[in-house]
Amino acid sequence: MAEERKRRKLIPNRTPIPEQDPIKRGSNFKEVSLGYTTEQALEEAERCIRCAKPQCVKGCPVGVQIGDFIGLVQEKDFQGAINKIKETNILPAVCGRVCPQEDQCEKLCVVGKKFEPVAIGRLERFVADWERDHGQKTKPKVAKSTGKTVAIVGSGPAGVTAASDLAQLGHKVTVFEALHEPGGVLLYGIPEFRLPKAIVAEEIAGLTDLGVDIQTNAVVGKLMTVDELMEDFDAVFIGSGAGLPNFMGIDGENLNGVYSANEFLTRTNLMKAYDFPKFDTPITVGDRVAVVGGGNVAMDSVRTALRLGAEEAIIVYRRSDAELPARAEEVHHAHEETIRFELLTSPTKIIGEDGWVKAIECIRMELGEPDDSGRRRPVPIKGSEFQIPVNVVVMSIGTGANPLVPQSTKNLDLNKWGYIVADEETGRTSREGIYAGGDIVTGSATVILAMGAGRKAAGDIHRYLLGEPEPEVETAAEVKNQP
Ligand SMILES: Cc1cc2nc3c(=O)[nH]c(=O)nc-3n(C[C@H](O)[C@H](O)[C@H](O)COP(=O)(O)OP(=O)(O)OC[C@H]3O[C@@H](n4cnc5c(N)ncnc54)[C@H](O)[C@@H]3O)c2cc1C
Ligand code: SF4
User: Fold this and answer.
1) Which ligand number lies closest to the CA of residue 47?
2) What are phi and psi of 185, to 5 degrees?
3) Are 37 and 89 in contact (CB under 8 A)?
4) Atom number in ligand 1 closest to CA 438
5) Domain spans in the chain, listed from the N-terminal domain onward
6) Pocket of ligand 2 (CB under 6 A)
7) Which atom of ligand 1 is nearest to the CA of 437?
8) Which residues contact 78 (CB under 8 A, 6 or more apart)?
9) Which residue's C-alpha comes closest to atom 4 of ligand 2?
10) Which atom belonging to ligand 2 lies closest to the Cα atom of 66?
């Protein structure tokens, strides 16, 4: 079969995915990408040659059996396909939408050596959506109870994956989440137009089906400490994320109308500020909004500002187009939606009037020699200061470790940036029985990497709880301060 497919003439380009009209979508929060129809999914699935040793799987941190699931799509067994994905991934509809597949599975797809790689993510989304629309939701098998208990701190992708795996292995799992709804960044960070909240809620509900107890409004480090949890549970996994906002330290950052991207997106997403006064969270909707930064979070913020009604929403980024860290697809979507890009531009101060933002002063930059990151360093051009009149500024220049849990847990090794030191393969920290993974260990990364970390830690927690022999690993101290 695989040989036959290899001989067949492949269509070089991926099947395009339908999208909402760029101008219309700039004023609504509905999903941008509409997903494949059945015909389009079948057409795209046919581009997979079903490699005997699929390279794509090596690029998936949770080991989804990609060739197998696409094979089932080719056979029109969509329920079989989603079941295959769910063997290793509890969040397929989420990952199909937001995983940076171009840097992971699709980057390694053999078809991509000559043509465009198979659109694995779009197919994953298709079968996940197909199940929601047509299928009988399947529930993974849960092993006989081991009598062991595990507490999970945080309900982002890392915590959710660890919880799901541990519950399936027969442990009693309780998730403690600081906010009033579970999901982490999937819920409060990534906007509705890229990842509908209903989809996140539905996939997280899979946890409850497995018998996991989710306690919301439970701020670990305030209500109880990890040390106290260790008195009641046999092990603890920390997946508390990296959402502490950074600011530039320039004049005017305390003015009304200046937000961190985290606050701006949380108010909009989780607290439905876009529906004020129906929901009681206010947000300043600027006529002119500047978002400082060039990553995915900046793109999400600027496109959110547009949808909240900004007449002009502007990206201010200190390097050039080529260095924009955001996914190319997000930048393309932003351009389509008429977002203005002020590149090679850096803010110097925010100017206010009566306590409110009135303008942002910037300086033009040019690119000099490469810095430690390998990217060319932006250098200010003397005397090139200018002002952009705006009434909202959103700072999206990266985040740091959420400090509460690391700092309230005794004898937990942290690196110099305040992230928890944990072994990459097992999630073990410097404290026996306490594990960590996701952004709180790596710094802000991706959904699937956080999920992979949750999975690895769950495997080791299981071995630890059952007293199985330990594989040889580096100690937490040995990995301390590794970048
Ligand atoms: C706006 C935005 C857009 C992004 N877009 C993408 C994308 O398109 N694709 C992609 O792959 N990645 C994206 N990312 C990154 C990705 O979302 C993160 O890497 C991922 O969510 C990390 O998962 P996590 O489980 O480690 O942490 P989080 O998702 O941050 O979850 C941590 C959870 O812990 C909770 N918590 C924190 N402190 C406590 C405490 N003391 N007690 C109890 N609970 C606590 C938090 O409330 C949160 O729910 C984006 C990030 C942002 C901010
Ligand atoms: S590498 Fe590409 S062609 Fe091969 S199995 Fe994976 S998706 Fe299919």
Assistant:
1) 2
2) -60, -25
3) no
4) 26
5) 2-134, 149-243+401-479, 246-399
6) 48-51, 54-56, 66-67, 70, 109-111, 118, 120
7) 26
8) 72, 126, 127, 130, 131, 134, 135
9) 51
10) 6
Q: Which CATH number fits domain 2-134: 3.40.50.970, 1.10.1060.10, 3.30.70.20, 3.40.50.720?
A: 1.10.1060.10
Q: Which residues pair with 363 in a beta bridge?
A: 346
Q: How far is the CA of 184 from the centre of ligand 1 (A)?
A: 5
CB atoms closer than 10 angstroms to residue 120: 29
Span from the CA of 128 to the centroid of ligand 2 (angstroms): 19
Distance 53 CA to ligand 2 centre (A): 9
Q: Point out the ligand 2 atom lying closest to the alpha carbon of residue 108.
A: 1
Q: What φ, ψ does residue 71 adopt, rounded to 5°?
A: -60, -40
For residue 99, give the nearest of 329, 440, 324 by alpha carbon.
329
- pTM, 2 dp: 0.91
* Architecture category of domain 246-399 in CATH: 3-Layer(bba) Sandwich (3.50)
pLDDT 10s digit of each residue in the chain, 483 long?
555 555 567 788 999 999 999 999 988 889 999 999 999 999 999 999 999 999 999 999 999 999 999 999 999 999 999 999 998 898 999 999 999 999 999 999 999 999 999 999 999 999 999 999 987 777 778 999 999 999 999 999 999 999 999 999 999 999 999 999 999 999 999 999 999 999 999 899 989 999 999 999 999 999 999 999 999 999 999 999 999 999 999 999 999 999 999 999 998 887 777 666 777 777 777 799 999 999 999 999 999 999 988 999 999 999 999 999 998 889 999 999 999 999 999 999 999 999 999 999 999 999 998 888 788 889 999 999 999 999 999 999 999 999 999 999 999 999 999 999 999 999 999 999 999 999 999 999 999 999 999 999 999 999 999 987 665 544 333 433 343
Does the Cβ of 206 fall within 6 Å of ligand 1?
Answer: no
The two structure tokens encoding residue 344: 């090679």
First-to-last C-alpha distance (Å) of the chain: 44
State phi, psi for 83 to the nearest 5 degrees.
-60, -40
Same fold yes or no, 2-134 and 149-243+401-479? no
CA distances from residue 444 to 158, 375, 398 in whole angstroms, order as listed:
12, 19, 8
Distance 55 CA to ligand 2 centre (A): 7
| Ligand 1 atom closest to the CA of 240, numbered from 1 | 34
**CATH no. for 149-243+401-479:** 3.50.50.60
Residue nearest to atom 13 of ligand 1 (CA): 446
